[in-house]
Amino acid sequence: MAQSTTVIEVENQKIDSLFYYFNNGSDKKAYQEAHRLLPQFKTNKAIVNTNFLLAYYHNRYAAIDSSIYYTQKALKSRASVNDSLSIRLTILAYQLLAINNKNKGLYHESKKWHIQGAELSEAHNETNLYYSHIHGLASTYIALGKNTEALELLEKCITYSNDQEIILGSYINLGSIYSSLNQYKTSNTYLQKAKEICEQDPHQKQALINVIINIGDNYINKGESDKALYQFYEAKKISFDNGFHNLDLIISDKIGTVLYNEKRNTDALLIYTSALPKAMSLGSLDVLMHTYLMLEKLSVRNDDYNNAYHYGKRYYKIKDSIENSQKEKEINSLEVQFETLEKEKKIKLLEIENLNKSLNIKNKDADIEKYKLQQAIIAKQNENQVLQFQNKAEKRQSEIALLKEKEALKAVELDREKTIKYVVLVAFFILLVPIVALLIIYYQKLQAQGLLNLKEKEINEQRVNSLKKDQELKLIKASVEGQNQERKKIAQEMHDSIGGNLAAIKLQFSQLTNHPEKMALIYSQLDDTYEQVRNLSHNLLPKKIREKHLVFLIKEYIYTVEDASNITINVSFFDEAKINTLNKNLQNELFSIFQELTTNTLKYAKAKTIDIQLDLLNACIFFVYEDDGIGFDVSKTSLGIGLTNIKQRVASYNGTLHIDSKQHRGTSINIEIPLNA
Prior knowledge:
677 residues, mainly alpha, Serine Threonine Protein Phosphatase 5, Tetratricopeptide repeat, 23 helices, 5 strands, 6% strand, elongated, HATPase_C_sf, phosphoprotein, nucleotide-binding, two-component regulatory system
């Protein structure tokens, strides 16, 4: 049934939207929409393009088998599309099949698809696609070790192609080839050009990874393993961040090889064991086979012969399956050709039979002779072709038989190695018994030494505690001595100034009856005395309390503590303006409490964070102090001098102190001081 123009336009718009999502960073959305719309599409063009989009999506995320599946579906649907579009889609399909087979390690299959794509592109003047296939073919030649052929194709791409991505890939591959030829200077020249192109385009992350990988390979060839590892780990991070799983797997393989060569067996084993499930999930047979080989070598190096046997067995199994896959495809191809010839033979026979019926009766005898002769010729030709196919099939069967014999010999060899390893293990266990006995004796000696060290540690701790107590006594004595000196100073000030003023006032009062005019002098002396008392009270406060606000002092102290330690202090105030207007004596007490709590945390708590909240609400001060240190059992621990002083300071203002602490859960202290009490 003919499809209406409206349906075609609507479906074309939907296809354009899918490719817009795919090419502009929303490939997940494009993938989901494509699966939703594919069953709804009516036009062949929409179905083909949707299958191609899904194939490209799976190729981007290294789902190789899924990409091949959708590519083949697109090829089946292309027959109904117009000729020029059908050819272009076929060329793109060949390119995807070549890339996916290369990623699976089937390089000969990849080469076949690239050659077919290049021939078809050249025949229909598809220049960009032609050089895309030429570049891909060069990459496959590199994988097959045919560097001369690859160099010729890559130079051709740089000279004649206008596609920046193809030029970039050519620079990268040329750098890789010249590196393999030990021409590191030339290699770095091409890699530098590639790097400059990548740095100008933020979307060239995958190409940038390949450049870094090749630079790392150069460092390996120059014997600079540490620099190579640095490059590989950088490339691995970019691959992981951008979801390039196949590249991440290849880089892991390279890192593992470097670590193995450096005899860092533990690190290499970790890399390969983590790469193994990734290689299986991605279907990367080449990397999977090499991973099993390296795990076998590592197991042998670590004297783990049982695992070495299993890894070796899996390595040969995958290797043989790849070889058999290629041979089975060739045999199937020969069978198809044979069946085709048989069908052609039947067609020729039918044509001859029809021709025989149309011959004139007079020429029947001559025609019969001619027919017999043609039959004899055809029979001979068919016989020769059958013999050729039989020879080829026998040759393939003999090759398969030889492979089976090789497998049998390998199995016998592995069994022999297994027997030798078993004997070695038995001898090892015999030697292990006296070694274990020596280790037990050595362990007992270590236990005795450990007990001795524990006793010494307890004695040292007792000495440290004794020194701490002596230090605390000295501090108490110094504090008492300072208080006594302060009391003497206050007493002297009161005696000399305030006492003198009070004596003068008393004398003036005694003369007030006879001299009432001295009342003004008495008031003046009282004001002077009040001012002296006020000044004396202010002088008892520290200078920083008198000159600076409480909030500023706390923040300044926090900055000093954080700068001198690894602790983080978080503090909040509400509201700052009212807090700064509190009585200076109360500010002094609050600052002293804050200093004492912070000092205790630094000395004993081993905390990483302190949280402080100081609020002034409803004529009441709320002071909350918390740390995430080791804590202590409040019910079993007596309060030290610092906490006792804090308790006394709070009580002097009719406040309440609550301490909440548990071992390994930190400490929380809540203080409430009413301002109107």
